[in-house]
Hints:
- The chain has helices at residues 2-6, 11-21, 24-31, 38-45, 94-105, 119-123, 140-152, 171-175, 187-191, 212-219, 234-242, 264-275, 290-298, 308-340; strands at 50-52, 68-70, 73-75, 79-81, 110-112, 131-134, 157-161, 226-231, 247-250, 280-284, 303-306, 353-355.
- By secondary structure, it is of the alpha/beta class.
- The protein has one domain (2-355): TIM Barrel.
- Residues 30, 43, 82-85, 112, 114, 133, 161, 229, 251, 253-254, 256, 284-287, 306-308 line the site of flavin mononucleotide (FMN).
- Flavin mononucleotide binds at residues 30, 43, 82-85, 112, 114, 133, 161, 229, 251, 253-254, 256, 284-287, 306-308.
Amino acid sequence: MARELSALLTLRDFERAAGSVLDAASWAYVAGGAAAQLTVRANAEAFDQVWLRPRALGGTTDEPDTSVTVLGQRLALPVLLAPTSPQRLLHHGAEISTARAAEAAGSLSIVSTDSHHAFPEVAGAVKGGCWFQLYAYRSREDVAATIALAEDAGATALVVTVDASYAARRVTTWRAGFRTPAHVDFGNLRSLGILTGEIPDGARIDRLPLTWEDLEWIRAQSQMPLVVKGILRAEDAERCLGLGADGVIVSNHGGRQLDGAVPSLVALEQVATAVAGRGLVLMDGGIRSGVHVAKALALGADAVCIGRPYLWGLGLAGQKGVEAVLDLLKHEIEDTLRQLGADSVADISADFAVRAQIRPSLAQGDIL
Ligand SMILES: Cc1cc2nc3c(=O)[nH]c(=O)nc-3n(C[C@H](O)[C@H](O)[C@H](O)COP(=O)(O)O)c2cc1C
């Protein structure tokens, strides 16, 4: 597999390769979004409407620095692994393989409440720690127990997802007849007693419809830094900071919740302007190359998260596959920085980007 992985030159190569090995229903679940999947496509296509302005003779090194500091932790590249669940669908190593790959590459894994492995097993498999992503199930008592499980296991941040309280209309996933296979489980929900017996159809247990008061209450439940995921408006970002959040993730859940939700990259600029350095701004949705990472940084992100791309690597070769995805992105980011005349990620500022609605047509044979 190592030789085959090195033949994959773009994240789209990983996508095609993963699509050819996964069963059709699992593929539909991973690739799919809500309804007509307009937001899934627009997340990626929004990057094509931002253009980069290289600085002539701007760089002074051929080894640009791709590192960033995120909530006090130094990462080798400005890319984190977004929470996705349950990764056993793709590989038996699931979240443990992903967390180990993130650590090996100097990235960071955000582990979902809906993970296959219980969070303590995942956090215990790495030295540098993981972030825990919270879904609020059933009652405040259960939510408090979920947060305590993560904090006791050493989670280095708590990410609260606010855009998935309600089940979405995942039509393509339904059409493919996706059912959570028997070998896939939900380790946290089992250990907390939230899930007992059979996994319900669509693997969906009702979540609490979160309110701002709940978020304030969640803030008070732990000492962990708090990051709110699923923010698309400046005033919502302000409100998060106002109640003591340390940052936000500009995200529409990879187009999996509201079809027609604004592409993350479009929402990013406004949110980053409002936050104005007072908190962490991450973004996810549609990142498919190092050039995309640079565009997001130029529009105000401190770092980005990827979802599907690392799942492609995981599905192909477990930990090695995720490492290969991160390695490719690191090389692409280095190349982009050199070409831009920037010595480091920190050098990338708003003046590197300009918007223009030009969509070059792809000639046959052009391959991304
Ligand atoms: C298969 C899959 C499962 C996901 N599960 C979760 C989850 O459990 N919690 C969460 O906050 N987001 C979840 N997401 C959304 C991702 O965290 C992220 O927002 C999205 O994948 C980013 O878009 P991208 O896939 O285009 O990179 C999931 C996404 C996918 C593709």
